[in-house]
Write a structure and sequence with these properties.
Layout (H helix, E strand, L loop, with lengths): L6 E8 L8 H15 L3 E7 L1 H9 L3 E4 L9 E6 L6 E4 L14 E7 L7 E8 L7 H19 L4 E9 L7 H6 L12 E3 H5 L13 H5 L11 E8 L2 E2 L2 E8 L14 E7 L16
Parallel strand pairs: 1-2, 7-8
Antiparallel strand pairs: 1-13, 2-4, 3-4, 5-6, 6-7, 8-10, 9-10, 10-11, 12-13
């Protein structure tokens, strides 16, 4: 992934709480990989307050999620530049969400130099259990509505959505977010970065090929793509181009598997001309 002109690099990863599987060694690998990839925006799940403090010490500007578990885990949105206005929601949509006590969403304005302008970055972390798709549907609705409210009347030019969504692309919550179905009389559309760059490729981010999955509390899990980076679409499609997207920290580094999830990183750039307008230049061919 090379540096992109007039673009932004984002990364999301569930980094597995450090109380599991030699957390200090895994965190050291993660820190090295983040420095190598050099994202502008970072969304991490299963972090601790100590992880947040380490990000701040590295110069990141951070916005923690609104809920943290009884054992001290949560999620955080971080950027190299300061965020502007920020709104949050705990995604407490049914009585069952009390059992997933660190779900939530953050939507934060990120002012960037021209020509990009201000981007609304939305970090979504719904309920995780396999059989909570009803909750994930309701939480996707809350997040979509929050993103709309956060952008209304604000100088937001683009909206991106990222995080560990705990559902495959065929799930109702993901179909809704991708504009493939409506929910509760509402429809939205976010373009999935992975399927844009790798059409037809499954790209699992939680896989039994990962030794920490086999070792962990979901040892019979099949391949699942549940971690996403997405770009909000207007009437004429996405406002940013996905110029690259890849999974990161798939393989062990110096014998250390960073997490039971693989991360996802993407470069987003401005399109050649504004969606909804015709270009004055004819393409060859």
């Amino acid at each position: 992934m090379g540096e992109q002109p007039h673009g932004i690099r984002l990364m999301t990863m569930n980094v597995l709480a450090p109380r599991y599987a030699d957390g200090p060694a895994r965190r050291a690998v993660l820190a090295r990989e983040v420095r190598r990839l050099n994202p502008d925006v970072l969304a991490l799940q299963e972090v601790t307050r100590a992880d947040v403090a380490a990000l701040v010490a590295e110069g990141w500007h951070v916005v923690p999620h609104p809920r943290w578990s009884a054992t001290g885990e949560g999620a955080v949105l971080a950027a190299r530049r300061p965020f502007g206005r920020t709104v949050t929601d705990p995604l407490d949509v049914t009585a069952r969400t009390a059992h997933t006590d660190w779900c939530g969403v953050v939507a934060a304005e990120l002012p960037l130099p021209e020509p990009l302008g201000t981007i609304l970055v939305v970090h979504h972390k719904p309920s995780w259990p396999y059989d909570y798709e009803h909750e994930r549907e309701r939480q996707a609705l809350v997040t979509a509505r929050l993103a709309d409210r956060a952008a209304a009347g604000r100088p937001v030019r683009h909206t991106v959505l990222l995080g560990d969504f705990d559902a495959s692309p065929a799930a109702a919550s993901l179909r809704f977010l991708q504009g493939l179905q409506s929910l509760d009389g509402m429809s939205v559309c976010f373009q999935d970065a992975w399927s844009t760059v790798h059409p037809g490729e499954p790209g699992p981010t939680f896989s039994p090929g990962n030794p920490l999955v086999r070792q962990g509390d979901m040892p019979e899990a099949s391949d699942r793509r549940i971690d996403y980076l997405m770009v909000r679409c207007g009437a004429s499609g996405p406002t940013l181009r996905v110029s690259s997207c890849l999974r990161v920290l798939v393989h062990p580094v110096d014998g250390v598997q960073a997490s039971d999830h693989y991360g996802v990183a993407a470069d987003l750039t401005l399109p050649d001309h504004r969606p909804g307008e015709w270009s004055a230049v004819l393409s060859p061919g």
